[in-house]
Amino acid sequence: MSSVPEITAAPGAGPVPPDAEAVRADVGAGTVEPAALTALTSLQLLRRLDSGPRGLTEAQAEERLARCGENTVPSWRPVSWPRRFLGALRDPFTTVLLCLGLVSAAVASWGTACVIMTLVVVSCALRSGGEHQAGRAMAALQELVATTATVQRRSAADAPPQLRELPVDQLVVGDVVRLGPGDLVPADVRLLRANGLTVHQAALTGESAPVPKRAVDAPPGTDQDAPEPPHMCFQGSSVATGSGTGLVVATGADTRFAAAYRGPARRRGETAFDRSVHGIAWTLIRFMLLTPPLVLMANAALRGRGLETLPFAVAVAVGLTPEMLPVIVTTALARGASLLARTSGVIVKRLPALHDLGAIDVLCLDKTGTLTQDRPVVVRSAGPDGAPDPDVLHWAAVNSFWTIELAELPVPDALDEAVLTAADERGTDPLEYEGIAALPFDPMVRMSTAVIRRPGRHGTHTLVVKGAVEDVLERCGRLRTGGGETTLDEAARERLLRCAAEEADGGFRLLAVARGDRRPRLGGYTDGDVRGLTFLGFVALSDELAPSAADALRVLTERQVAVKVLTGDHPGTAARACRDLGLPPGEVVTAGRLAGLEGPALAEAVGAATVVARCTAQDKARIVAALRADGHTTGFLGDGVNDLPALQAADVGICPRGAVPVAREGADVVLAEKDLTAIERAITAGRHASGNIAAYLRITLSSNLGNVIAMLAAGLLLPFLPMLPAQVLVQNLCFDAAQLSLAFDRPTVGAARRPAVLRPRVFLRFITGFGLINAMADLATFGVLAFVAHATPGTDSPTMFHAGWFTENLLTQGMVMLLLRTGRRAAEGRVVGPVHLAVTGLAVVGLLLPVSPVAPLLAMSAPPPLYYLLLSAVLTLYGAALAFARMRYARRESGEGVPDGSPERSAEHALVGGQNA
C-alpha cells in the first residue's frame, strides 16, 4: 500500500499549480470529472483540487458549497395530476372515443356526445387516480434517514485540522473524510490511507461479498482504467471492515451513484399491454372508421337518403366500439393493484404493469436475497482427506470467536456468524481457551488469525488461522492425517487445491483451517509470524436458502413462467442453489460465453439455460432485451443501481422496498420484501385482471359486431332506420353499465394457469364466429317481427319494430355475458355474483322499458304477446348455438378434449393466454 506524503503547506499557500485557477473554476461549475482524476497520483490530485491531507478551511468549504450546491442526489419530479390525466388520453380507444364525441357534437347529436365525453373523463380520472395513489404509496417508502460524515477541516489556513461531524449534504469537493466500520460512503472519494478496508457495494455492482479497497498512488498506466478502481470508494456503498481516509472528488449529481439520474431516463419500448390491447384496438378502429362512410353511401345509393343518416352512421360506429374498454381496463387493473397493496404489500406504480405481470412468461432475477438469504450456513467440515471431521469446525469457531472479541469488530463477518452458529449446535465452547491476540481478516492476505493459550499449555501460544484455501496453504508446512502429522509436499498441496476447486464448482464456499504452536513473545503478533502451520481441513459453506423460494418456484413453474437466474456469482454456487430449491439448472453458462451473441442467437442460448453466471449490469440488460425482442414477456427483479438498465429493458421492472432509491423510482412494481412469493401473487393478480379484461372484449366485440351487421342489413332492407340514434345510445348505455360488473368478476380456477396475453388474431377469429351467430339471431328476430306485424293488426309501425329489436338486443347481450364470460364449473355457477346481478338488471330493462311510460319518448311501442312467445324460441336456439360453438372453439384452439367437465377452462386458455394460443 502506498502512503501519501504529508503536505504541510496550506492549500493555496506556497507553490500553486499552474492550472489552479482553472481547477477552482471547474470545482465551482461542478465539472470536475472523477474518472479522469483517478489516473493522478495522490499528491497531484490534492494539488489539482486545491486541497491537502489536513482538509479544507471553512472559508474554502463555504465558497465551494455556494458554487457547487449541496451534496444531494437529484430525485425524479413527481408527475402532476394534469399530466397524468392527459397521459391517459394516449390510449387509442380513448382517443377514438374523443373524436367520435366531437363528431357527434358536430352533427348536433348532443346525447351521444355527452355520454361519450363522460366515458372519456371517467376513464382518464380512474387511470390517473390509480397511478396517483401508487405514487403516494411510493413516496411513503422513501427512507428519510439523516446521515452525517466525519470531515477533517480547519478554521483558518494556519490552524490545525479538526474532526467534525457534518451533514452529508454539506460536503464539497476537496474535503478529507474519515471512514470507519458501518459508515456509509458519503460521496465519491479517493483513498489516501486505508487499513484493512472492505466495502459493501452491492447497490452499485451487485457483488454480495465485501470488496477490498486500498490506497494506491496510481501513476498513469497502472489500474486507473479498471472498472472498479481499488483506490476509489463510491457513494451508495458502505464500509464493512477496516478504516480509511479519503479525498472527496465528486458530490451530488456528479457522483457515480447519481449517474443514473442524469439526463432523461431511457423510455421503455412497447410493453405486453401495449402490444395486446393496442393491436386489438387499431384493428377495430380501422374497421370502425370505414363503417360511417359505408352506411352513408349504401343508404344514399339504395334508399336515396342523404346526410340525415349521418347521426345513425355515427351511432353504428359507436356501437361497434368497445367504448367501455378504457373504463373496464382501468377499473380491473386498479382493483387488482389496490388488492395487492392491501394484502401483499405490492405497489403497482404503472397500472398497465399489472397486465404485463400477468403476461410474464420469463422472470429474470438474481440469486442472492431472492433464492437465497444474505447469510451463509455451514454444510460440513472435513479433514484433508475429505472425510468428515468435526474438529475442523471446532478450531474454525475458536478462530471466529476470539477474532471478533479481541479485534473488537463492530459488525461480525457473516462467515464468522455461520461458523459460530454451527459450532454452537455441536457444543463447542471457545471460552475454554484464553485469548491472547488477534489479526482480523485482511483483504490482502485473505485470512484471519487468533492467538490463544490452551488449557495446561502455559508455555505455548497457539495460532489458529482461517481463510482462503490458497493463502492458508501457502503458510502451511505440515498436514494432519489420521492421528499424526506429515510434511505438506507439492503433490499434497496440488491435491488439496484441486479438491477446493471441485468444491467451488459444486457451489460451496470453502474456508481452510490451520493451526500452529509458538513460544510466547513479548511484542505483538504480525502477519510475518503466521508461518509453518499445520493444515487441519476445510469448512464448506453455502448460501442459506430463502424459506419460501422452493414453493414459489414450483408455483411459477406451474404458472408456465420460466425463471432465469442472472447472477454475478460463481456458476457452481448458483447451480447448487437452484438444485437445492428443486429448479433444474441444466447447463450453466457464463456471461463470457455469451459475449459475442446478439438478438435471436442470444435469446436462444439463454432460453436453453436456467443460470447465467458472472453477469455484469450490461450483461443482464442485454439478456433481458434479447428475450423480450424474441417475443417473450419479461420481468426483472433487481435492487441496485447496477440493475437499472435491466429494470428498464424488461416489460416489468420489479424491485423490493429495500432497493436503492434510483431502482425504486425506475421500477414498475415495488415489493414489501424481496420474496418470490409476493411476485407469484402479483402475477396471479395480473392474470385475474387480464382474464376479466379478456372476458369483456370477447363479450362486447362479438355482440357489437353482430349488432352492426344486423344494423347494416336492416338499414338496406327496411324503408325506415332499424334503430334511432337515441335508441342506440340507450341500448349502449344499458349494456355498458352491465359490463362494468365484469371488472369485479371473481377469478376463475384456470385464470392464472398460463400467461395472460390478449392476442389480436385469436380475438378476431373469435368475434367473427360469434358475431355471425349473434347477427343470425338478430336477423331471425327481424323475421319474427315481420311475421308478428303481418299476423297482428296495427303492429306494423316502426315503433313496434324498434321496441322488439331493443328488447331482443338486451336479452341476447345478457346471454352473451353469462355464456362467454370466463368459464366456471357448475358448482361455481351457483354462486350469485356481480355479473349475475348485472344480467338480471339488463333483462329487466329490456323487458319493461318498451312497455313503460318512457317508451313513447324513445319512439317505441309495446310488441304484442305473440312476439314474446316467438322471441323465447329464438333465444333458446341462440343460447344452444352459443354453447355448442363455444365448446367446438375451445376444442379446436386447445387441441384436446374437455377435461374434468370444464370446457370453459380450455376456451379461456385459448383466448386469454398461452404460448400456443
Automatic annotation (TrEMBL):
For the protein in the UniProt heading, the enzyme class is translocase
Say yes or no: keyword Hydrolase present.
no
Region spans: Disordered: 1-21, 208-231, 894-917
Coiled coil segments of this chain: none
PROSITE patterns, per this entry? ATPASE_E1_E2
Q: Key word Cell inner membrane present in the record?
A: yes
Q: Which domain of life is it from?
A: Bacteria
Ordered alphabetically, the record's keywords are:
ATP-binding, Cell inner membrane, Cell membrane, Magnesium, Membrane, Nucleotide-binding, Phosphoprotein, Translocase, Transmembrane, Transmembrane helix
Q: Which SUPFAM superfamilies match?
A: Calcium ATPase, transduction domain A, Calcium ATPase, transmembrane domain M, HAD-like, Metal cation-transporting ATPase, ATP-binding domain N
Q: Name the catalysed reactions.
A: Mg(2+)(out) + ATP + H2O = Mg(2+)(in) + ADP + phosphate + H(+); ATP + H2O = ADP + phosphate + H(+)
Q: Name one GO molecular function term.
A: P-type magnesium transporter activity
Q: Where in the cell is it found?
A: Cell inner membrane
Q: Where is the Cation-transporting P-type ATPase N-terminal domain?
A: 36-109
Note the SMART domains from the entry.
Answer: Cation_ATPase_N (SM00831)
Any one Gene Ontology cellular component term annotated for this protein: plasma membrane
Q: How does it sit in the membrane?
A: Multi-pass membrane protein
Provide the E.C. number(s) assigned to this enzyme: 7.2.2.14
> Which PANTHER family has this protein been placed in?
CALCIUM-TRANSPORTING ATPASE
Q: Give the family this protein belongs to, as stated in its UniProt record.
A: Belongs to the cation transport ATPase (P-type) (TC 3.A.3) family. Type IIIB subfamily.
Function (record text): Mediates magnesium influx to the cytosol.
Query: Can you name this protein?
Result: Magnesium-transporting ATPase, P-type 1
The organism that produces this protein has a lineage beginning with: Bacteria, Bacillati, Actinomycetota, Actinomycetes, Kitasatosporales
